[in-house]
């Protein structure tokens, strides 16, 4: 069966309307009160259409949140890794502090703790791609001499972004720009202080066995 361009456009409009409806309802009702029925009614699509594309409400929310996150927090490159990291982390903090995105992500995290399939989807669709993009941004900075050659880039990503999600999950106050600036400066200093020479063998002082392979 060949799908016509008009059918593809209708499908994309329906998909976009569904994602928008899910986020709108999350703002209005709170994550737990949003249902597939409500999303379908708001989007003007059938429940059958939603279940053809997503396995559940949380599947809709995950795609909606991921698309917004990727759109508003790109990994830009101005030539100043510290400035770029500050801009990126501040963008992430603002997103998680703004309804419906913060509540939607909290709902997703809550459900993934007792749903292994969802946990896998979160890792594959959201966490791993963003983690790899952050490592790649640091790698380019490393090539430009802004990050030491022997620095553990995956660990650096965890040090930079861990505090953001820690505060979000525990519902602590979000970082302000001064706190983010201090975090970025501290992590970059730690990379310079702790990085062994690029050609240092495994087991030498300052090099952790298996460095660079943080899961």
UniProtKB/TrEMBL annotation:
Task: Cite the entry's keywords alphabetically.
Answer: DNA-binding, Transcription, Transcription regulation
What InterPro entries does UniProt report for this protein, alphabetically? Homeodomain-like_sf, HTH-type_TetR-like_transc_reg, HTH_TetR, Tet_transcr_reg_TetR-rel_C_sf, TetR_C
Q: Provide the residue span(s) of the region labelled Disordered.
A: 193-215
Superkingdom in the source lineage: Bacteria
> Could you tell me which SUPFAM superfamilies the record lists for this protein?
Homeodomain-like, Tetracyclin repressor-like, C-terminal domain
Coiled coil ranges (UniProt) are: none
DNA-binding region located at which positions? 35-54
Residue ranges of domain HTH tetR-type in the record: 12-72
State the protein's name: TetR/AcrR family transcriptional regulator
């Amino acid at each position: 069966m060949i799908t016509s361009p008009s059918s593809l456009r209708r499908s994309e409009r329906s998909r976009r309307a569904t994602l928008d409806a899910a986020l709108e309802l999350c703002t209005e009702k709170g994550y737990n009160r949003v249902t597939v029925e409500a999303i379908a009614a708001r989007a003007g699509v059938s429940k059958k259409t939603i279940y053809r594309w997503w396995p559940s409400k949380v599947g809709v929310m995950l795609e909606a949140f991921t698309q917004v996150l990727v759109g508003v927090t790109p990994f830009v490159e101005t030539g100043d890794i510290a400035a770029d990291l500050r801009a990126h982390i501040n963008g992430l903090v603002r997103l998680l502090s703004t309804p419906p995105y913060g509540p939607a992500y909290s709902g997703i995290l809550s459900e993934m703790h007792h749903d292994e399939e969802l946990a896998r989807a979160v890792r594959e669709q959201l966490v791993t791609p963003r983690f790899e993009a952050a490592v790649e941004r640091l790698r380019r900075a490393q090539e430009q001499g802004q990050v030491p050659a022997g620095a553990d880039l995956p660990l650096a990503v965890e040090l930079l972004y861990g505090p953001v999600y820690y505060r979000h999950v525990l519902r602590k106050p979000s970082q302000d720009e001064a706190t983010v600036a201090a975090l970025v400066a501290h992590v970059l200093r730690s990379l310079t202080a702790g990085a062994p020479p690029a050609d240092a063998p495994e087991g030498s002082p300052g090099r952790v066995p298996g460095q660079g392979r943080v899961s």
